[in-house]
Amino acid sequence: NAGVMQNPRHLVRRRGQEARLRCSPMKGHSHVYWYRQLPEEGLKFMVYLQKENIIDESGMPKERFSAEFPKEGPSILRIQQVVRGDSAAYFCASSPPGQQGLYEQYFGPGTRLTVT
Amino acid sequence: AQSVTQLDSQVPVFEEAPVELRCNYSSSVSVYLFWYVQYPNQGLQLLLKYLSGSTLVKGINGFEAEFNKSQTSFHLRKPSVHISDTAEYFCAGDAGGTSYGKLTFGQGTILTVHP
């Protein structure tokens, strides 16, 4: 059973460009979470999604950031008009369905975004 | 709001020595607690979790943690470390309720095991 997959692993964007980060959850998992790790900081929750639904986006910046988890395909974290402060590692996690599954988050290897 | 504090940013230790990584949490709500390990350029791996029941939790790789409600702590311990334990360790909490799945992480502790 493949783990959580994220691509690309490394992404370089110039200021003002768009960044699209992809996350494929583990097989059978229906919950996806996105976290951001800024340099010298711990991980910060961004958004929690189930298929076609955003459950909790309280950690998402109000502008330029959006996330989706369509019925088919990977979850996408989209950052429009990137700025230098967006440079960070972005981690996706997934968990199995059901309430107990919420406490077993499996993390992907992350996408390291560098904005030049 | 839930908060998690890791008291040491770096912990150096010699191989085969015991180690304790400290974690405190805010006690405003019922809490579920976790320890994760992150090796360089990799994602986080779950070491152990406390949801309820016995306050002593055993995890993978010989690690264990004790939930102490009176001291609002969840310290991670290992009686004898190996070089391969060198990594960054994160304590995390979930406040439950409407926050299901929304983990709050501490700042991380870098454990360096010296030969």
List keywords for this structure.
heterodimer, A: 116 residues, mainly beta, seven-stranded mixed sheet, four-stranded antiparallel sheet, 11 strands, 0% helix, 48% strand, globular, B: 115 residues, six-stranded mixed sheet, 12 strands
Return the structural class of chain A: mainly beta
Helix content of chain A: under 10%
Strand runs of chain B, count: 12
Rg over alpha carbons of chain A: 13 Å
Number of helices of chain A: 0
What general form of chain B does the structure show?
globular
SSE pattern of chain B = EEEEEEEEEEEE
> Globular, elongated, flat, extended or rod-shaped: what is the shape of chain A?
globular
Helix content of chain B: under 10%
Round the Cα radius of gyration of chain B to an integer and report it.
14 Å
**Could you give the distance between the termini of chain B?**
41 Å
Mean pLDDT of chain A: 92
Main sheet of chain A? 7 strands, mixed
Strand content of chain A: over 45%
Low-confidence stretches of chain A: none
Report on the architecture of this protein.
The complex is a heterodimer of chains A (116) and B (115). Chain A has strands at residues 5-7, 10-13, 19-24, 31-37, 43-50, 53-56, 65-68, 75-79, 88-95, 106-107, 111-115. Helices cover 0% and strands 48% of the residues of chain A. Chain B has strands at residues 4-6, 10-14, 19-21, 23-25, 32-38, 44-50, 56-58, 64-68, 73-78, 87-94, 104-105, 109-114.
Structure summarized in a few sentences:
By secondary structure, chain A is an all-beta fold. In chain A, about 0% of the residues lie in helices and about 50% in strands.
